[in-house]
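Hi Y.,

Following your request, here is the sequence exactly as I used it, all 346 residues.
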Amino acid sequence: MYLQATTTYGSFIPGSEYIRSLVRQGTISRDAAKRLRWMDHYGRSQNARQTCRYFGISAQTFYRWKNRFDPYDLTTLEEESRRPRRVRKSESPVKVVERVQELREEHPRWGRDKLAVVLKREGIEISGSTVGREMKKLKARGLLVEPENVRQAKLARKRRRKPRYATRKPKGYKVEAPGDLVQVDTLRIRLIPNEERFHFSAWDQISKLVGVKAYRRQTSTAAADFLHHLKTKFPFRIKAIQIDGGSEFMDQFEVACRRAKILLFLNPPHRPELNGGVERSNRTHREEFYEVEDVSLDVGEHNKQLAKYEYGHNYIRPHRALHLQTPNEYYLQWKRTQRAQVSRMY
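Below is the corresponding structure, written out as tokens. Let me know if you'd prefer a different format.
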């Protein structure tokens, strides 16, 4: 790398923006760029003490790099290899090295000194430091795996799972018709101190139709049953479902979605606003059902009450978001509009 020369090298060293561009291009390393800024500052101030105070470095470090610096060759600011020109070759016989490897693999928690004692019992005179050097070489060659790495590998195998059916929603996914995107969520309901229910709720983004059902447990089997409930209650085909990261929307629920050929979109962590429609719907269910109804402690009776509420919400209750139409009225109007558009095309 060459720079245009002038009388003093400090006056032509590039500014910070250009130095960053050199790093991005891979011309120099980040450490070399840092030292180039030292030289730049010194070239402008011509004061070594001030430069050292400004960057918090010692005078010895600054002058070492200043004496090496050549403004026509920025590689002079790179660290040089400290590897010895002549590397001492291992004097340990191959059989001894193989025995060190065998013992270490047999006793992975034993240190070099313990292994040296065991080898001495076998008639192999070797120091602990030599055993340590040989183990280090074996690890560098990938022939010796340490206990930490073994444990991490086992944990990684345990964590490895089949790829999920659920994916992130594509950026260009269009929601234009009922069923294009249905948001699904769960609501924990405490009826009495020792009695909890899990209220599964669905909300269609276009028609605002809802589906609700209560279960004793928050499981993927319950979620799969709720999907069947939605298919019987919604008057249109569900094309895609959007969920949060709850475990109830895994396993059996994903299997049911795959079988029904329903796309499953998983929201990123800590982004509840992406399911804002069903979250707001849950608030309505709390205010208009759970806070005013005498909910039965029997799950069957509870769901009969919910079925009546679900019908009223979809077929009787006017919605401001739909210009005071019911979700069913809006859906029927949407169907008529679609038929009219199709008839005009032909």
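Residues 327-345 form the longest helix (19 residues).

Thanks again,
Q.
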